[in-house]
């Protein structure tokens, strides 16, 4: 039987026999004298017992899961480590390209600022150009007129 089957068998056994571990309200009432069996205090105590049973069951399930993880050797962790290693390699491979892209972006921003400055200078000297909308064809036309590469 492999680890997963063992875990499942223990889990099933726990929940199949859960009724054997629990006490019914009638059985609980019988533990007290007849005159107190119908009191609200008995009902409240029974609810506390039920909560305790549920908490105990959750603890047992959590312990089963952690034991199962230890027995299995936690291959998920190995898979995560392998995935992180691959991602680190990809990041290292892409880092030079990223740096070049950032440098290109900075260069393009500088060129844009230069064009804006030249455009503003022209706009000061040429009134119709001042009213023109700055769209891409107008910038290309301006670039051709200025012979800017």
Automatic annotation (TrEMBL):
Pfam families: Cnl2_NKP2. Keywords: Coiled coil. It comes from the Eukaryota. Residues 98-125 form a coiled coil. GO terms for cellular component: kinetochore. This is Uncharacterized protein.
């Amino acid at each position: 039987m492999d680890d997963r089957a063992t875990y499942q068998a223990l889990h099933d056994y726990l929940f199949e026999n859960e009724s054997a571990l629990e006490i019914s309200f009638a059985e609980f009432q019988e533990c007290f004298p007849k005159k107190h069996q119908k009191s609200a205090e008995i009902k409240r105590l029974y609810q506390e017992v039920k909560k305790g049973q549920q908490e105990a069951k959750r603890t047992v399930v959590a312990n089963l899961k952690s034991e199962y993880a230890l027995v299995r050797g936690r291959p998920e962790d190995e898979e995560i480590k392998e995935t992180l290693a691959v991602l680190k390699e990809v990041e290292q491979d892409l880092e030079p390209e990223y740096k070049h892209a950032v440098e290109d972006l900075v260069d393009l921003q500088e060129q844009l600022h230069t064009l804006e400055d030249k455009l503003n200078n022209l706009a000061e000297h040429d009134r119709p150009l001042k009213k023109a909308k700055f769209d891409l064809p107008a910038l290309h036309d301006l670039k051709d007129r200025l012979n800017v590469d």
